[in-house]
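worker-3 :: picked ATPase sarcoplasmic/endoplasmic reticulum Ca2+ transporting 3
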Amino acid sequence: MKQFIRYLISSNVGEVVCIFLTAILGLPEALIPVQLLWVNLVTDGLPATALGFNPPDLDIMEKLPRNPREALISGWLFFRYLAIGVYVGLATVAAATWWFLYDAEGPHITFYQLRNFLKCSEDNPLFADIDCEVFESHFPTTMALSVLVTIEMCNALNSVSENQSLLRMPPWLNPWLLAAVAMSMALHFLILLVPPLPLIFQVTPLSGYQWVVVLQISLPVILLDEALKYLSRNHVDEEKDRK
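worker-3 :: tokens ->
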């Protein structure tokens, strides 16, 4: 139950952070409503369901019985959910921003120009030699959506165990989860490649290099969660046992 809740809370926090950041920084939308709806109803649903088939933790017999008065989600667990969620949101916005600033197929504008994209016009010297239609490109939203989906699949794999490292409890201990992740990624490629879905979801196929960037932005979430699990095993749980 905890892992199911952890997965959904951290994923949804990430989406909220993404929307909040783009609004407060004045950036173009990284994700549009139909994309968020797709992620929440389809791509997240399969892994979340599969987490119900997780095996018990390896050290479950070494733990003291849970106090019935203890909250299901402690302050530390809530902090972990927030930490992962904040990374998800930051990474999603970073992916869209990267396309505008650095991608070979992008406009190579400055961050200041990006923040002031609503002022783009032929008469504005700030946007000289820049086609304002570039701010309606589907590439940045596709980058953001692809990072969101990929990170959430990594997040699902992280959720095989609450505190055990992936090295001790690898994802293949839950084959249903692997199948769900594969299905979710297949569905993501489906909306990128099969007409008329790209038009409906306002996405476009990515190049191999762009997918490398997606992975570079997404995979560090595994290291972040491993660090949080280490703190849980070696500090938080030990202090709880002393009490």
